[in-house]
From TrEMBL:
Pfam families: AmiS_UreI. This is AmiS/UreI family transporter. Keywords: Cell membrane, Membrane, Transmembrane, Transmembrane helix, Transport. It comes from Pseudonocardia ammonioxydans. GO terms for cellular component: plasma membrane. The keyword Transmembrane helix applies. Belongs to the AmiS/UreI family.
Amino acid sequence: MGSVGLLFVGAVLFINGVMLLGWVDEKSAAPMNFFVGGLQIITPTYLIFTANGDANAILAASGLYLFSFTYLYVALNITLGLDGTGLGYFCLFVFVSALVFSWLNFTRFADPGFGVIWLYWAFLWLLFFLLLGLKQERLGRYTGAVCAIQGWVTGWLPALLLLTGGYAAMSGTVAVVLAIFGLVVFGGLYPVLGRRSPGSVPAAPGPQVSA
């Protein structure tokens, strides 16, 4: 069930990313944030209630709420026209938590693939904090590009591998490939998009306006 949720996390990250890039109007992105935010409430709740007290299963499922609350926060900010500062500081909380979940995947869960994926998410939510919480407007387009790309490589791709049974044998390979990909692509995009003149400060991960 978590793999299905991850597939649609990929979709909402992509939508929020292209919203930040200015390709999609923010109001048209709000429904997807509501849909996926709701799904990511139902999924971990189901997994926790059916875990039969398995501490590792409950721990793994608990991290999903970080994303569901982000997407619902985004949707409400867009719908109600709220300032994005509160969301930005929540993203700081998510950033710190994602670092912990990354470490847990490398150690407790012995899953280096998702260890790297959680580092990707930590980086993205750090960008959201800088953009929304600290109003670093120059990062808007760079954050959008990172968000859109992460929708494919941290959501869509691992979800398909999990759903088709191909992930378990490839976790180490996924970790190495994503680590190299992230350093090269995100590092290469920053000089192009990260230093552009600022636009308007977003109310959510998407341009008014984002993981």
